[in-house]
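[Discussion] Sanity-checking designs against the backbone

I'm trying to build intuition for which residues belong where. Below is a structure token string of 121 positions. I'd appreciate it if someone posts a full sequence so I can compare it with mine line by line.
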């Protein structure tokens, strides 16, 4: 896994077009403070070839989770929200602009650490 720093978030989201029209493939609750989400994405650095990206959230401080059977119904046509604010990373499968908006999402994660790993489609 590679660390994803706050300063690199914008370029990361641009590379994967903010995960527009992606699919959440898997959610793994490793522990109460570590969670992994695997999504599909088109990589602009590889001629828009499809691959999977696993986001590993560590030091999770707050989360609203869904069951695996509900993940298939999450709409990511407009992309995901992945921001860094007040020393925390925030993830939600919809547009958001700050951590207050993230907490209105049906599914979100707030953590202090974030890493990612690329994998085959």
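Best answer:
Here's mine. Compare freely.
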């Amino acid at each position: 896994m590679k660390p994803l720093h706050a300063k690199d978030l914008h370029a990361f989201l641009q590379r994967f077009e903010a995960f527009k029209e992606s699919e959440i493939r898997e959610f793994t609750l490793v522990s109460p403070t570590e969670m992994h989400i695997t999504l599909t994405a088109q990589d602009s650095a590889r001629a828009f070839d499809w691959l999977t990206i696993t986001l590993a959230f560590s030091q999770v401080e707050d989360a609203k989770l869904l069951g695996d059977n509900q993940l298939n119904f999450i709409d990511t046509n407009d992309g995901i929200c992945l921001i860094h604010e007040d020393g925390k990373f925030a993830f939600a499968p919809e547009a958001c602009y700050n951590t207050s908006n993230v907490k209105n999402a049906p599914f979100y994660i707030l953590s202090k650490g974030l890493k990612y790993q690329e994998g085959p489609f």
